[in-house]
Design brief:
single chain; 23 helices; alpha+beta; Penicillin binding protein transpeptidase fold; 5-stranded mixed sheet; 3 domains; Beta-lactamase; disordered C terminus; 5-stranded antiparallel sheet
Length: 667
C-alpha cells in the first residue's frame, strides 16, 4: 500500500513538472516570437517648437505624445523608485520571477480568482508593446516566453530605457520624459523625489493615479513608493520625511501646449516645403524666430484695434440715429458684421528678415485662416512709397514739384472707349505740390503724374528688385491695385528701415533631430537702394506719422515711419510702418470684401494697432533703439519753412547765380 501511494505521489510530481514544461514547450515551438520592435526600438517621437528665447510654443505629434530619453539621461532615483515599487529583483531575474509567480498561483488557488499579478518590468514591457491585454493563460505564457527572449537580447539598462519610454503615464503622456514635462513642466533631471514617485506609480493604473484627476490618491500612491524605497534602505530618514511632506504643483495642460497656433500652422507649412514629411513623428526640435513676448503683444494690439473699430461704428450709428430723429427720417445705419470683419499683424526684424510676431486673425478659435500669410489683398496707397522710392533713385528729391491736377484718361476695352477719372481724397488738388507733400497727403493725382513722368516701363523694372510679381502694367499701379499678403508687404517695406537692403523673411532659425542639425536658415539679401535714398524715404514716411494720414500710428517715446493704405470703397485698411529696428504691417477688412464704414480708413483702423504694439514693444524691451540713424552723405537744406534731405543722387536745388552787369554789356 505504501509503495502504491509513493508511486502515485511521484507520478503527480512528474506530471506536475512535465505538463507545465510541455505546455511551455508547445507555445515556444508553435508560435513565432518576434521581438524586433523592442530590440530595434524606434517609437514615434513628438516634435517641439520653440521661440527665439527657448520658450516652448507647442508639441506636435500624431497619435502618441512621446519625448524620448536615453538611459544615460534617466535620473538614478527614477530607476530606484521604479524597481522598488514594481520589481525589486529586476537586476537578478531572467525576465520572469519564479517566486512571485508561485506566490501568485497560491493566492489565485485560495481566492478562486486573480488577486495578485506577478509580472516583472520586462513582462510589463512585453505586454504593452507586443501583446494584447486579454486575460488568458495562453497570453500569460507567451508573455513569459517573450520576456525571457528579450532578456537574452537586451541588457537590463536597455530594457529599462525602453520601458520608461514606452509605458503610458496617463493624460495622453507616453514615456517618463513626456510625463515630467506635462505634469510638472520640468526636465527629468530637475524632478524632486516626490515627483519621481508620482510618475513611477502611474503605470499600474494611469487613470486612477493621475494627479490631474485624483491628486490625493496620486499622492498616496507616491508615498507608498517612497516608503518602499525607505524600507529597502535606498533613502535616508530625512529624505523620506521631506518627500512625504511635499505636495508638488501639477499642471493640467492640453497635450499640444499650443500657445501660438498661427505660428504652429506656419511652421508646419514651411517644414513641408523643406521636405520634412514626418514632422509629427520624427522627434524634431524646431527653433523659430518668433519672440513670444512680442507675439502676445501683437495679438493684444490687433484685438484692441478691432474692438475700437466696432465701438466707433456703434458711435457712428448712434449719431446717425440722433440726426435722423431730428430730421424725422429713417437713419442710414452701417451693419458691422463682426463675424466677417477681421485683421492681421506681422512684425519683422528689418535687418535679419526674422519674423518676430505673426497673427493671422483677431481670434484663432473663431477663424484659423492666416490672413498674414495666406490672404492676398490690395495695398492701396500703402504701395505708393515704392513708386516714390524709385523716383528718389532716379534723382528726384522731396522738394521736386509734381503736377497735382485732375485728369481724364481714355482707353479701349474690347473695342469700346472707356474713361478713367482718378481723384484725390476730398476731391481737391494743389496744381503743383512737392514730392514730400504729395506722399504725406497721399495724393493720387500727383502719384499718377509721377508714374507718367518716370515712365511705366522704368517703374516696373524698378519694382523687379523687390521681387514683386503680377503687377498691373497700366497707370492703376499708382493706386496699389495689385495684391499682396501682409507678410509680403512687410518684407518689401523692410528695405526702407534697413539702409536700403531687403532680407528674405524667415520663421525657422534651425531644426535638430537626435542632436543633429538638419536645417539652418540661409540669409539672402538684396540691395534695393542706397542707404541715403532709403533714409530720405524714411524722413517722408516719418512725416506721414507726424502730420499726415498716419497720425493714429504715432507712439510716444520712439520714432516711427510708415504709410496708410485704403482701397476703393474702404474695402481694405492698412498701415505699414517701422521703427529703427522692426517692420510691422497691420491689415483690417471684411473677408467677403464688404466695404468697411466710410469713415474707417487705413490710418483710422490699422494705425491704432501699430501704435499700441510699439507702445508694448518699448515697455517689454526698454533698451530698444528709439531713433533712426542718419547715414553718411545726407545733406540737410532748409527749403521754405521745412528742412529737406538730399544726397549725391537726390541733389539739393541749385543756388541761383547773380549775373555780372558788365558781362551782360558785352553782349
Amino acid at each position: 500500500m505504501r509503495k502504491h501511494k509513493t508511486k502515485i505521489f511521484l507520478t503527480f510530481i512528474i506530471l506536475g513538472t512535465l505538463v507545465p514544461v510541455g505546455i511551455i514547450w508547445y507555445f515556444y515551438t508553435q508560435f513565432k516570437y518576434n521581438i524586433s520592435t523592442l530590440v530595434d526600438y524606434n517609437p514615434t517621437k513628438s516634435t517641439v517648437i520653440y521661440d527665439v528665447n527657448g520658450e516652448k510654443i507647442a508639441n506636435l505629434f500624431d497619435k502618441k505624445h512621446r519625448f524620448y530619453v536615453p538611459f544615460e539621461e534617466i535620473p538614478p532615483r527614477a530607476i530606484e523608485a521604479l524597481v522598488a515599487i514594481e520589481d525589486t529583483t529586476f537586476f537578478e531575474h531572467p525576465g520572469i520571477n519564479v517566486d512571485a509567480i508561485l506566490r501568485a498561483v497560491i493566492k489565485v488557488i485560495k481566492a478562486g480568482k486573480a488577486v495578485e499579478g506577478a509580472s516583472t518590468i520586462t513582462q510589463q514591457l512585453v505586454k504593452n508593446k507586443l501583446l494584447t491585454r486579454e486575460k488568458k493563460l495562453s497570453r500569460k505564457i507567451k508573455e513569459a516566453i517573450y520576456a525571457i527572449k528579450l532578456e537574452q537580447s537586451l541588457t537590463k539598462e536597455q530594457i529599462l530605457e525602453r520601458y520608461l519610454n514606452e509605458i503610458y503615464f496617463g493624460h495622453g503622456y507616453y514615456g517618463i520624459k513626456t510625463a515630467a514635462d506635462g505634469y510638472f513642466h520640468k526636465d527629468l533631471k530637475d524632478l524632486t523625489l516626490k515627483e519621481i514617485a508620482i510618475l513611477v506609480g502611474l503605470p499600474k493604473a494611469p487613470s486612477t493615479y493621475a494627479p490631474t484627476k485624483n491628486y490625493e490618491i496620486s499622492m498616496g500612491r507616491a508615498n507608498r513608493v517612497i516608503s518602499r524605497m525607505h524600507i529597502l534602505g535606498w533613502i535616508d530618514d530625512a529624505t523620506y520625511q521631506d518627500s512625504l511632506a511635499e505636495n508638488p504643483e501639477v499642471f493640467d495642460d492640453t497635450l499640444t501646449q499650443n500657445i501660438a497656433p498661427f505660428i504652429v500652422d506656419e511652421v508646419l507649412r514651411v517644414a513641408k516645403k523643406l521636405g520634412i514629411n514626418d514632422i509629427k513623428t520624427g522627434g524634431y526640435k524646431i527653433y523659430t524666430t518668433i519672440d513670444m513676448k512680442l507675439q502676445v503683444a501683437a495679438r493684444e494690439s490687433l484685438k484692441y484695434a478691432y474692438d475700437s473699430s466696432l465701438k466707433r461704428v456703434e458711435g457712428y450709428n448712434a449719431k446717425a440715429i440722433k440726426i435722423a430723429k431730428k430730421r424725422k427720417r429713417k437713419p442710414n445705419l452701417y451693419d458691422a458684421n463682426a463675424t466677417l470683419f477681421n485683421g492681421a499683424l506681422v512684425t519683422l526684424d528689418s535687418a535679419t528678415g526674422d519674423i518676430l510676431a505673426l497673427v493671422g486673425s483677431v481670434d484663432y478659435k473663431k477663424s484659423s485662416f492666416n490672413r498674414a500669410t495666406q490672404s492676398r489683398r490690395q495695398p492701396g496707397s500703402a504701395f505708393k512709397p515704392f513708386i516714390y522710392q524709385t523716383a528718389l533713385d532716379f534723382g528726384y528729391s522731396g522738394a521736386t514739384e509734381l503736377v497735382d491736377i485732375a485728369k481724364t484718361f481714355t482707353y479701349m476695352v474690347d473695342g469700346k472707349k472707356k474713361k478713367w477719372r482718378p481723384k484725390n481724397h476730398g476731391k481737391s488738388f494743389k496744381g503743383l505740390i512737392p514730392l514730400r507733400e504729395a506722399l504725406v497727403r497721399s495724393s493720387n493725382l500727383a502719384t499718377i503724374s509721377l508714374v507718367k513722368d518716370i515712365g511705366l516701363n522704368q517703374l516696373l523694372i524698378g519694382m523687379e528688385k523687390y521681387g514683386m510679381e503680377n503687377l498691373p502694367r497700366d497707370l492703376s499701379i499708382s493706386l496699389g491695385t495689385m495684391s499682396f499678403s501682409p507678410l509680403q508687404l512687410a518684407n518689401y517695406y523692410s528695405s526702407f528701415a534697413s539702409n536700403g537692403i531687403q532680407t528674405q523673411t524667415h520663421i525657422i532659425n534651425s531644426i535638430e533631430q537626435d542632436g543633429n542639425l538638419i536645417h539652418e536658415k540661409i540669409t539672402k539679401t538684396t540691395r534695393i537702394t542706397e542707404a541715403t535714398q532709403a533714409y530720405i524715404m524714411t524722413t517722408i514716411l516719418q512725416d506721414i506719422v507726424k502730420r499726415g494720414t498716419g497720425t493714429k500710428a504715432r507712439t510716444k517715446g520712439i520714432e516711427t515711419a510708415g504709410k496708410t493704405g485704403t482701397t476703393n470703397n474702404n474695402v481694405d485698411g492698412w498701415f505699414s510702418g517701422y521703427s529703427p529696428t522692426m517692420q510691422t504691417v497691420v491689415w483690417f477688412g471684411y473677408d467677403d470684401n464688404t466695404p468697411m464704414h466710410h469713415r474707417e480708413y487705413g490710418g483710422t483702423v490699422a494705425g491704432p494697432a501699430f501704435s499700441k504694439f510699439y507702445e508694448k514693444v518699448i515697455s517689454i524691451y526698454p533698451e530698444t533703439q528709439r531713433k533712426f540713424k542718419v547715414p553718411e552723405g545726407i545733406i540737410k537744406v532748409k527749403v521754405g519753412k521745412r528742412v529737406e534731405y538730399f544726397s549725391k543722387i537726390s541733389k539739393p536745388p541749385r543756388v541761383e547765380v547773380v549775373a555780372d552787369p558788365e558781362e551782360e554789356l558785352l553782349f
